[in-house]
């Protein structure tokens, strides 16, 4: 194997696992479709105003599916009103109902809720207990069949079917305990998902209406469980590390686990389950999910802003402030830009801090600027599509570069720009 071949092997993702595609309110999950980003509200669903506002914010941030809690009659009553309000706002994001314990009852007693939702999420570990479990699970599946809704069968290690886990533990002990308790727990999670999916199909829910998930909170457990689940099933898979935590811990843990699985071709839709800080922005989890997929090269959501980390040559904070402002402006403007500037998500911007890597990095971007480092001449060359087009000087370097960026976006991606013009500027 040559060095070039090794490089290609290490950089290229493995072929995508072939799963059965599922239509969730017009969004395709699985098959050849791109990996779908989803999120979940943390509002009281019965509070229509706050739930509509958060669903709208998550959708504007880029969430392609949004899950809401349906835990009591008041929440179920609110669902069709939430759907109606969103439709009036021209927000067509599919809503997923998250059901636990009494989902069968809520769906039966609130048919408008059952109709308004695009998908139901049920947990086989708490859908019912003992003799009621199969009856109540079956009731939800029959409702899904009646309204032609897909179902996510979402196993969670924190609410795992204890009867199944106990049986597998007893069998393992009788066989001389060849597996550790952790390995048995992983197997119980996989079996719970597969057994439940088989039951749903036997009741009459087609395979192309079933998505599976197996949520755990430890990185190695998630990798092991989904790797095994992918081997033993062709169902579409929802990836997510549950109870991932707050801030950088949650981001790192989720990215590490899901990055490995996605690289192996496993996963059809993802959610980054971040614990927000008090009063924190719920849309942060959407941004992280997008950044994970974009960084790995699976999808493009927003223009990329490359910026150097800074060193002793960059004691000025100008390049940091400019990079931050441009990144924030891009995020804020993307909901409008998606409609106004088709293809803008592929834009690459470079904001560099000194002469060492600045000019080279800027040349590789669509548009880039190399700001002066410590002791350098107070001049900032600007490069567009690999060519130096200007040198900015003076106190308004940042403002002038921002205007050049805006002009470039309008010229390259504006709806008035013909395909021939775009080809010339490409």
Automatic annotation (TrEMBL):
Q: What class of enzyme is it?
A: oxidoreductase
Q: Which organism is it from?
A: Chelativorans composti
What is the role of this chain? Converts 2C-methyl-D-erythritol 2,4-cyclodiphosphate (ME-2,4cPP) into 1-hydroxy-2-methyl-2-(E)-butenyl 4-diphosphate.
Pathway(s) per entry? Isoprenoid biosynthesis; isopentenyl diphosphate biosynthesis via DXP pathway; isopentenyl diphosphate from 1-deoxy-D-xylulose 5-phosphate: step 5/6
Gene3D superfamilies on file? Dihydropteroate synthase-like, Sulfite Reductase Hemoprotein, domain 1
The enzyme's E.C. designation: 1.17.7.3
| One Pfam family here | GcpE
Q: Which family does it belong to?
A: Belongs to the IspG family.
Keywords in alphabetical order:
4Fe-4S, Iron, Iron-sulfur, Isoprene biosynthesis, Metal-binding, Oxidoreductase
Can the keyword 4Fe-4S be found in this entry's annotation? Answer: yes
Q: Which HAMAP family does this entry report, sorted A to Z?
A: IspG
Q: Which cofactors are required for activity? A: [4Fe-4S] cluster
The opening ranks of the lineage are: Bacteria, Pseudomonadati, Pseudomonadota, Alphaproteobacteria, Hyphomicrobiales
Q: In its UniProt entry, what is this protein called?
A: 4-hydroxy-3-methylbut-2-en-1-yl diphosphate synthase (flavodoxin)
Q: Which residues form the IspG TIM-barrel domain?
A: 21-290
Instruction: Decide whether keyword ATP-binding is in the record.
Output: no
IspG C-terminal domain location: 305-405
- Per the UniProt entry, the signal peptide is none
What does the entry's cofactor note say about binding and number?
Answer: Binds 1 [4Fe-4S] cluster.
GO MF annotation list: 4-hydroxy-3-methylbut-2-en-1-yl diphosphate synthase activity (ferredoxin)
Record: residues binding [4Fe-4S] cluster? 308, 311, 354, 361
Please write the reaction equations for the catalytic activity of this protein: (2E)-4-hydroxy-3-methylbut-2-enyl diphosphate + oxidized [flavodoxin] + H2O + 2 H(+) = 2-C-methyl-D-erythritol 2,4-cyclic diphosphate + reduced [flavodoxin]
């Amino acid at each position: 194997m040559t060095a070039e071949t090794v490089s290609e092997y290490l950089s290229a993702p493995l072929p995508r696992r072939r799963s059965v595609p599922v239509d969730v309110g017009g969004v395709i999950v699985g098959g050849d479709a791109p990996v779908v980003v989803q999120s979940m509200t943390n509002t009281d669903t019965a509070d229509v105003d706050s739930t509509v506002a958060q669903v709208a914010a998550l959708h504007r941030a880029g969430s392609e599916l949004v899950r809401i809690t349906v835990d009591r009659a008041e929440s179920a009553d609110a669902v069709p009103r939430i759907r109606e309000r969103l439709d009036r706002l021209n927000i067509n994001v599919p809503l997923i109902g998250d059901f636990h314990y009494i989902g069968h009852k809520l769906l039966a007693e609130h048919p408008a809720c059952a109709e308004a939702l695009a998908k139901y999420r049920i947990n086989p570990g708490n859908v019912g207990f003992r003799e009621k479990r199969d009856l109540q699970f079956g009731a939800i599946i029959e409702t899904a069949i009646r309204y032609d809704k897909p179902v996510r069968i979402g196993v969670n290690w924190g609410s795992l079917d204890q009867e199944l886990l106990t049986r597998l533990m007893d069998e393992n002990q009788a066989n001389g305990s060849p597996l550790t308790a952790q390995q048995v727990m992983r197997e119980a999670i996989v079996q719970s998902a597969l057994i439940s999916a088989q039951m749903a199909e036997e009741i009459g829910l087609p395979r192309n209406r079933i998505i599976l998930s197996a949520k755990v909170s430890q990185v190695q457990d998630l990798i092991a469980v989904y790797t095994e689940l992918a081997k033993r099933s062709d169902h579409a898979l929802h990836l997510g590390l549950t109870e991932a935590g707050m801030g950088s811990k949650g981001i790192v843990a989720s990215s590490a686990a899901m990055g490995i699985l996605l690289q192996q071709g496993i996963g059809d839709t993802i959610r980054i389950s971040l614990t927000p800080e008090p009063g924190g922005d719920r849309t942060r989890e959407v941004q992280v999910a997008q950044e994970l997929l974009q960084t790995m090269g699976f999808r493009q959501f927003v223009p990329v802003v490359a910026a150097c980390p800074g060193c002793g040559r960059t004691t000025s904070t100008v390049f940091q402030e400019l990079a931050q402002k441009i990144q924030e402006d891009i995020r804020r403007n993307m909901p409008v830009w998606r409609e106004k500037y088709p293809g803008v998500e592929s834009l690459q911007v470079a904001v560099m801090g000194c002469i060492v890597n600045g000019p080279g990095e800027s040349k590789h971007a669509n548009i880039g600027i190399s700001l002066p480092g410590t002791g350098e001449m107070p001049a900032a060359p600007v490069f567009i599509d690999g060519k130096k087009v200007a040198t900015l000087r003076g106190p308004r370097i940042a403002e002038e570069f921002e205007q050049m960026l805006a002009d470039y976006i309008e010229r390259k991606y504006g709806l008035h720009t013909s395909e021939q013009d775009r080809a010339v500027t490409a």
